[in-house]
Write a structure and sequence with these properties.
By secondary structure, this protein is mainly beta. The chain has a single domain, classed as Single-stranded right-handed beta-helix, Pectin lyase-like (Pectate Lyase C-like, 3 Solenoid). The chain has 6 helices and 29 strands. The longest helix is centred in the first third of the chain and has 11 residues. The protein starts with a helix and ends in a 21-residue tail after the last helix. 52% of the residues are buried.
């Protein structure tokens, strides 16, 4: 590994280690966040990140938790989670019962029919017996405590909408047999894949400030016609197939998929799929990539990929300098796919192979927000991953 690469890792890893039915947008409608969104406070707490500047300068975050629901950007910006419901306090981390969920457990909270904003009353490591299948209009908000879901099946958002998952560390997830009645009619699999977060036939989903690592399958997968999704401010490390977007090459309902991947830190030990896309429209904006062992962004079945304002640092292996990889296609086919790199920064020999039309009009459906210059990511380390949130103090990324 070069000294150049190590310099950037030392600079940034302290900010990334884990701690305790949207209408299609036109480019002209993408929000100019710096001038139109609410931004709290001034000075050092402001970073220029539109999500964080919307709420993180507030020391009374605990009293104003639901402010978060107004802060999403990108294609998942309409996800309100449990904003319009009551608070549900999870008090029991030990008694996961998939057949008869116990009141006070996370499983009991997520299966309720009404909107709920789910919070916790102490540090928890939750080991689920079966995947956690969520119902619509739920927020899982881990701020204030070290909340981990690990060493078992993890989170599934199946045929649901309006979900927010915030400030949770998800790791070491494994497959498990599904409970009776949990298998969707169009989903023949009776066993979960072992994803950290599985999004299946869902819409209006926002995942923010989570840390994910070392799961059996994907860290975050979105398939089977899922759309209107934002994955933001999250830290991912030590994993092979990071994110899969799209069910398979023959599943044409994924042509309507729209996903924003913004302000994330793709850290050490990642191999591929950051993300791997099929059919749909993907806005990959203002992320930081600290190396990859195969490729960073890939796809098949003619997805539109709009990469803007990212920083890509290749590792020292000359065979892995390319950011992009086209799957299951010959060059004569993929040369017509709309993949572009717009003001990305390529370091240590990284390069992006563009294709398709060079006009802005070809990326209308793959534009969800206005990118900031990638230089901001070099000058200011990204505040990705779980936050340390103490009552009366602004939430921050703990130094390591």
């Amino acid at each position: 590994m070069s000294a150049f690469f190590l310099f950037y890792l030392v600079l940034l890893l302290h900010a990334t280690l884990p701690s305790s039915a949207r209408t299609l947008m036109q480019i002209s409608e993408a929000t100019e966040w710096s001038s139109t969104r609410r931004q709290l406070g001034t000075g050092s707490c402001r970073t220029g990140n539109p999500i964080d500047d919307c709420w993180r300068c507030d020391p009374d975050w605990e009293t104003n938790r639901k402010m978060l629901a107004d802060c999403a950007v990108g294609f998942g910006r309409n996800a309100i989670g449990g904003r319009d419901g009551e608070f549900y306090v999870v008090k029991d981390s030990d008694n996961d019962d998939p057949d008869n969920p116990v009141p006070g457990t996370l499983r009991h909270a997520v299966v309720q029919e009404e909107p709920l904003w789910i919070i916790f009353d102490h540090d928890m490591v939750i080991n689920l017996k079966e995947e956690l299948i969520m119902s619509s209009y739920k927020t899982i908000d881990g701020r204030g405590f070290n909340i981990q879901i690990s060493d078992g099946p993890c989170i599934t958002i199946q045929n649901a909408s309006n979900i927010i998952i915030h400030n949770i560390y998800v790791h070491d997830c494994i497959p498990a047999w599904k409970a009776m009645g949990q298998v969707a009619p169009q989903h023949s699999d009776e066993k979960s894949d072992g994803d950290g977060i599985s999004i299946f036939g869902a819409r209006d989903v926002w995942i923010d400030h989570c840390t994910l690592s070392n799961c059996y399958d994907g860290l975050i997968d979105a398939v089977y016609g899922s759309t209107s999704i934002t994955i933001s401010n999250s830290y991912m490390f030590d994993h092979n197939e990071v994110m899969l977007m799209g069910h398979n090459d023959d599943f044409l309902d994924d042509k309507n998929m729209q996903v924003t991947i913004a302000f994330n830190f793709f850290g050490a030990g990642l191999v591929q799929r950051m993300p791997r896309c099929r059919h749909g429209y993907f806005h990959i904006v203002n992320n930081f990539y600290a190396g990859w062992e195969m490729y960073a962004i890939g796809g098949s079945a003619n997805p539109t990929i709009n990469s803007q304002g990212n920083v890509f640092i290749a590792n020292d292996d000359n065979s892995t300098k390319e950011v992009t990889k086209r799957e299951n296609s010959e060059s004569g086919e993929w040369q017509n796919w709309n993949w572009r790199s717009d003001e990305d920064v390529m370091l240590n020999g990284a390069y992006f192979t563009p294709s398709g039309q060079e006009t802005a009009a070809s990326y209308i459906r793959a534009t969800s927000m206005v990118a900031r210059p990638a230089s901001h990511l070099i000058n200011t380390p990204p505040s990705a991953g779980v936050l340390d949130c103490q009552i009366g103090i602004q939430c921050y990324i703990p130094k390591r």
